[in-house]
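Technical note accompanying the year-one report. For the benefit of new consortium partners, we illustrate the data format agreed upon in the data management plan: each record pairs a sequence with a structure-token string. No post-processing was applied to the example shown here.
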Amino acid sequence: MNKKNIRGGSLLARALKEKGIDKVFTLAGGFCNPALEGMMECQMSVINCPHEQVAGHLADGHARITRKPAVCLVGPEGFANAVPAMLEAWGERSPVIFITGSSTQKRQGSGGFKEIDDVAIAAPLTKYSVSINDGERISEFVDRAWTAATTGYSGPVHISLPVDIMFSSFPIDAGLDERPYNRKPRPIPRAWPDPSSLSRVLELVQKAERPLIIGGHGIWWSGAEKLLETAGKTLQMPIFNVPYHQKLLGEENEAYMGLADFHQYHPSKPAIHESDLILMLGGRLDNQMNFGNAPFFPETTTLVCINGSHEELDYNRAADDVLLSDPGAFLQELTRINRTWSGWFEQQKTRRADWVTEWSEQIAKETVEDQRIHPLQLSLDVQAEMGENDWLIFDGGNTHFWSEIAVNIAGWKGQKLGGILHPGNYSLLGVGVSFGISAKNMHPDRNVVVISGDGAFLSGGLSIEVAFQEGLPITVVIDNNGGLDCISQQQERLFSNGKHFATDFREIPFHTMFEGLGGYGELVTKREEIGPALRRAMKSGKTACINVKCRGVISPIVAATSDKRDKASIE
């Protein structure tokens, strides 16, 4: 009996379907047509995007929310467009599977149509980058890529499928006669701590007088945030979040204090400097953490890094001690300690309360009638209109940093949100709208609000077409200060003439752009107009833009960065 033959692209689609892929994001190209045909036959959900970078950001946003791999499918020239999205996913450890329909293998190295070395380009930005050179091995390489993306130090991967293999025919069961016969996703392996090493770390905790936790993205990808919350509350141990990475606890949570960032949340400085033990859990000692060195981490504290993979521990050589352990497994053992640190815990809560009071008083003084709106006030007023299940996304330079401060202030006052997304470790502008669409796609019954700087929207705002096309209405609030304000203000502090250069935009009517696409738009020039405009936008049922005229105000972190760079140190 003859076996049915199908194209290599269909084999690819079937292998992805077997892994449980539920979303594919693409800009359809001729090199990828056999894969798209296979996905159509498999009844996979495919979203067509106006640009390959948008496709990559949507896949990234989907992966961050679901904590499962999503696919970005592009052609060879489209791969080049998707590289920035690959960088963003790499910074956040997001398990996106980037797939390139690439130039013919038969004439590789001879200047084939749209030939690029996509495997080499992707290699430093992914955990795994490979070209499939045999159609019989398509399922095998999908399995390898999936495993690399989800195991240990999670992250994006890249598969290149040459167009001649994409279009060629193979038996429908090609490559399935070898183990593993079951190619469905397996439970992700977790590192269990060595008992003696675990005991050593727990003994340090038991003896500590002022311990604290700095949580990183490893907690999110291992699904251990509930255990983190339990540990903080049970032990009365203060918890801080690594900057730029996924929010692990809601800002309203009593164990959460804020970012481990001396500028965006300055009470973290005395807490870290006074601590005698810091548990860095699921994070890396990178530039955000001054590579584990003073003056961020003082010599008087003991720094212990707990990570779920050896790749993470390789980054953390500066730690005084390390423990290879899944974050959840460690937190389970940590909560069994028969001790609390209530006095130390309450001190950090008091510091947070004082910080909120200081900022609230300061912003009240700076919110002056007949003056353009302060970006911090904008973010606070937007959150005041949102419910506890709604999603907030922020994107930009100063817009991002002011919103980080705003969510901490609002959270302390009891504001709950369904979720928060923002650019990751590389601060890539233009991801906000795509992430907002991803959130709406997963939670169609909730309001999704994106606060975006005007520069960030110009970088990635084309992705808004997906919201219209797919019927996913989100509300975009533009912090419109007329230019790249984050850069302008650094220039004004750095340049000898005190001016900025090449950072201004013309007057852009963002709200009418949305109206022209079939959405809702309003221009806001006064603070009292923000709330009513936002309510009308969310009730319109349309993808909407509130174009808010804001003034440029340098954020604490940009001011600090400017000072450091002026002293010839960029870290």
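Partners are asked to follow this layout when depositing records. The longest helix spans residues 342-366.
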